Amino acid sequence: MINYKKVTDDTFWIGGSDRRLSRFENIFPLKDGVSYNSYVIMDEKTALLDTADISISDQFLENLKGILLDKKLDYLVIDHMEPDHCSQISTVVSMYPEVTLVGNAKTFTFLSQFFPELNDQAKVTVAEGDTLSLGKHELTFVMAPMVHWPEAMFTYDKATKVLFSADAFGTFGAIDAGIFADEYDFEKRFLDEARRYYANIVGKYGMQVQAVLKKAQGLDIKVICPLHGPIWRENIGWFIDKYQKWSTYTPEDDEIVVIYGSLYGHTKSAAQKAADHLREKSGKNVRIYDVSDTHTSELVSEVWRCSKIVIFCPTYNNGIYIPMENFLSDLEALGVSGRTFAIAQNGTWAPASGKLITEKLSKLKNVTIVEPMLTIKSALHETDEPEFEAFVNAVVNA
Ligand code: FEO
Predict the structure, then answer these.
(1) Do residues 235 and 167 make contact, with C-beta atoms less than 8 angstroms apart?
(2) Tens of pLDDT along the chain (398 residues)?
(3) Cα of 200 to ligand 1 centre, how many Å?
(4) Ligand 1 center to 15 CA (angstroms)
(5) Residue 172 Cα, ligand 1 centroid: separation in angstroms?
(6) Any idea where the domains of the chain sit in the sequence?
(7) What's the rounded Cα separation, in Å, for the pair 374 and 390?
(8) DSSP tally for the chain: helices H, then strands E
């Protein structure tokens, strides 16, 4: 059934949601799906802005045909060549063979890798600041390299002041009834998933996000149309402020997160006690997570949110407990910076994880590693109280 929706003058959302996908990029668990947004501008010339994932191709193509009716499609603007948005390009070209593809030089390199059959299709190659007139609507192209692939770009419509922002300002989560963020309690419904999406998908590229945010400051933006999640037309500054914080690795909340690994419960017990004491002594919110039972993407998201991270970790094969090592490697891969870490190690005969974790965390930029480290031999006992309290105090005062 055709189900497109009006965004603003002549501009329509023609996307859909996949509620069956269990893992985005076959990595990140989805709690309630994801949306793939695609847009059409109906003017003297018609333009489609990005296609959609193959999982919603039936709905997307039905919407496209339903909005265009007997009009031809003049342009397909490709803001992002990742397959969750580009999968239908070849199909669209076969339906509208006179369409001209619009992208930058890198877009077309990737296009020929994914769709060599389109090498001879009509194309317009654009660069920073280039414009394309559709009639009333004039599109300006803003390069957004590494947000989140090198070819990514934003498209700005001067007539409606709409910014088509590719992956930026997106979120995990299917769109329910309503395509606009102001139709939801966004903080309750989407914020955690928006942060998890940002931290894990584009978190590594904070500098590049900063660069494109600076460019966006020069535009009069009334509406932001991302490729995932709801569209922003109210309170845009609030969400841009989140992106400012996330892309500069500034913690949103002055809170503490305790992340533990535990084979038999002894390290867990110590971590729980530390969380209770930290809460009592700091007065701050403390969240506690089992590293083996929480997807790394959730932990990464919490690191983005909180200012202090306390790690409780057993020694395993003379190394770091494997699930904790995976989590720490992800922090390194994503270039986390500006956080305070505290480390408690456990070991029955040769505790070694603390030193190894310190070495790993030392590779991150601008981090503080709290001293002293806490060492537990098998389990925390009353005799450990002085060392334990010194550890908790050091975390509170860091
Ligand atoms: Fe939603 Fe980078 O693709």
Answers:
(1) no
(2) 999 999 999 999 999 999 999 999 999 999 999 999 999 999 999 999 999 999 999 999 999 999 999 999 999 999 999 999 999 999 999 999 999 999 999 999 999 999 999 999 999 999 999 999 999 999 999 999 999 899 999 999 999 999 999 999 999 999 999 999 999 999 999 999 999 999 999 999 999 999 999 999 999 999 999 999 999 999 999 999 999 999 999 999 999 999 999 999 999 999 999 999 999 999 999 999 999 999 999 999 999 999 999 999 999 999 999 999 999 999 999 999 999 999 999 999 999 999 999 999 999 999 999 999 999 999 999 999 999 999 999 999 99
(3) 12
(4) 14
(5) 11
(6) 5-247, 256-393
(7) 9
(8) 13, 23
CA 85 to ligand 1 centroid distance, Å: 7
Q: State the DSSP H helix or E strand holding residue 34, giving kind and residue range, or none if neither.
A: strand 34-36
Q: Whose CA is nearest to atom 3 of ligand 1?
A: 82
Give the other-Cβ count within 10 Å of 310's Cβ.
26
The answer to whether 313 and 261 have CB atoms below 8 angstroms apart is yes
Taking the centre of ligand 1 as the mean of its atom positions, its distance from the CA of residue 352, in whole angstroms, is: 39
Residue 280: CA count within 13 A, CB half-sphere? 9
CA distances from 124 to 2, 108, 314 (A): 30, 10, 57
Q: Which atom of ligand 1 is nearest to the CA of 167?
A: 1
**Ligand 1 pocket by Cβ (under 6 Å):** 80, 82, 84-85, 148-149, 167, 227-228
What CATH number matches the domain at 256-393, 3.40.50.360, 3.40.50.2300, 3.40.630.30, 3.30.300.30? 3.40.50.360
The DSSP string of 90-116 is HHHHHHSTTPEEEE-HHHHHHHHHH-G
Fold of 5-247: Metallo-beta-lactamase; Chain A (3.60.15)
Atom of ligand 1 nearest to the CA of 201: 2
